[in-house]
Specification:
The chain is of the alpha/beta class and 194 residues long. It contains five helices and ten strands. It is globular, with a radius of gyration of 16 Å. The two termini are 18 Å apart.
Length: 194
């Protein structure tokens, strides 16, 4: 059975978005983007909260489909964008929301307790479940559901914003499983629950 993995880009001072809600500071270079695409390809499903799902659903469903209008994401060329878009469209997505009425793009709306939904999803798919979004991850952490943390630490200090880790009732003991440095200065810190 797959693991539940929380993976996101984070600033050196621990934030996933600026005070204004921007995430463009975390745009990966080509090498990191290929690594992230390869990892996404191995996942069994994406687990999203409402905001992250809406952000992804605003772009990836149609990205790379029109060859006459090649799309770029930052410095990434249209072929890389199209490759990730194909992976994203093919993967099942579980969206945790009490406010959304429906979801699309190979997605299922989850309204039950996160532990119930994670157990159900583990039975439905093979591979790890990739949690994206600090609010959802916080709910998972409170219930001890995250098996692994993959922090892609970008060498930037934002000085405030939305933190990667929310306040918790108790500490979570981790052990370092891997480090990896990418040419653009991003460092992967991969921790497993101790």
């Amino acid at each position: 059975m797959g693991k539940v993995v929380y993976w996101m880009t984070v600033s050196l001072d621990g934030f996933v978005e600026t005070r204004e809600g921007h995430i463009d500071w975390g745009m990966p270079d080509e090498g990191l983007f290929r690594f992230l695409t390869d990892y996404a390809r191995q996942l069994g499903a994406f687990l999203y909260g409402r905001r992250t799902y809406q952000l992804m659903a605003d772009f990836w469903p149609t990205a790379g489909l029109d060859p006459s209008a090649p799309e770029r994401v930052g410095e990434l060329g249209p072929e890389l964008v199209a490759e990730f878009a194909r992976v994203w469209r093919a993967k099942p997505k579980v969206v945790f929301s009490r406010t959304l009425g429906s979801v699309e793009h190979n997605s299922r709306l989850a309204r039950e307790d996160v532990a119930v939904e994670v157990a159900r999803t583990k039975q439905e798919v093979q591979g790890d479940l990739g949690v994206c979004g600090p609010t959802l991850a916080s709910a998972f952490m409170q219930r001890g559901l995250i098996d692994e943390y993959r922090l892609f630490v970008r060498p930037i200090v934002l000085g405030g914003g939305k933190p990667y880790f929310a306040a918790l009732d108790r500490p979570v003991a981790l052990r370092l499983a891997e480090t990896r440095t990418f040419p653009g200065g991003v460092v992967l810190l991969r921790y497993e629950r101790a």
